[in-house]
Amino acid sequence: MKERPVVTRRDFLKGTAGLVMAMGLGSPALEAEGGEERTRVILIRHPDVLGADDRVNGPILQQMLDEAVRTLAGEKNAGAAWQKFFRKTDVVGIKTNGWAALPTPKEMEDALRRRLLEVGVSEANLAVDDRNVRSNPVFQKSTALVNVRPVRTHHWAGAGTCLKNYIMFVQFPWSYHGDACSDLGKIWTLPGVKGKTRLNILVALTPQFYGRGPHSIDRRYLWPYRGLIVGTDPVSVDSVGAELLRRKRVAFFGEDRELDVQPIHIAVADKKYHLGTSDLKRIEIIKLGWQEEVLL
Prior knowledge:
Blueprint: H1 9-23, E1 39-45, H2 58-73, H3 78-85, E2 92-95, H4 106-119, E3 126-129, H5 137-140, E4 144-154, E5 158-160, H6 162-165, H7 178-181, H8 184-187, E6 197-208, E7 227-231, H9 234-253, H10 265-271, E8 283-289
């Protein structure tokens, strides 16, 4: 018998409501109940990272990524921060996302490659891939993964997230589409993936905050947010990303307009697979850079 998800839509909405209440005062850091430690997520934005026609400014994007990683690592300079996450002996797969309508920007892939090479990772032990990760020899022998993709609404999963981005590590991705993709966290327990991910990055340069139907893309619902959401905990990063999309829907429509499904896979990854923290009251969002209409 197929196991039912342990988290319902109501559970998910309760979690986000907690964030709404906790962040309503504009505090840069949330107070967790009972003094428990909070997961740290970095949100960084820059007004000039996008130019004409939303063209990405590579040098500014590199600066944003470096500052996010530096802050996340608690180091004084970016070089030390990158060395805290990766060793020169690592074999690193950068799991990108090539969906044509809203792919991971090439400038982001280049920025990651540049810093990993500077750490000392060899060209032969570094690869960027999406749909061929299962057959890619670097990914097959990888000791470390970087998970990077744009954040957007998604027909089957509610939100296209870092958790969702690993669906290409299984032979039949469609087999995870049931129950709003609630079991995506299971993929993270597989031998080729488990324990390898050092950084999770949601690219929020031009997020899609609303859409209905498979492979939906509607430029009315893309907005130039000009941000990155970075952390080590994929569940926390995704919780912040999903909340950002929800808040934009409320700002745009005047209500949290219903999606095809809710992104319950985020909370399931926490409650069932113990991959991280989905309770938004226990996530500390460090906000850096441009704050205009930050929403969070």
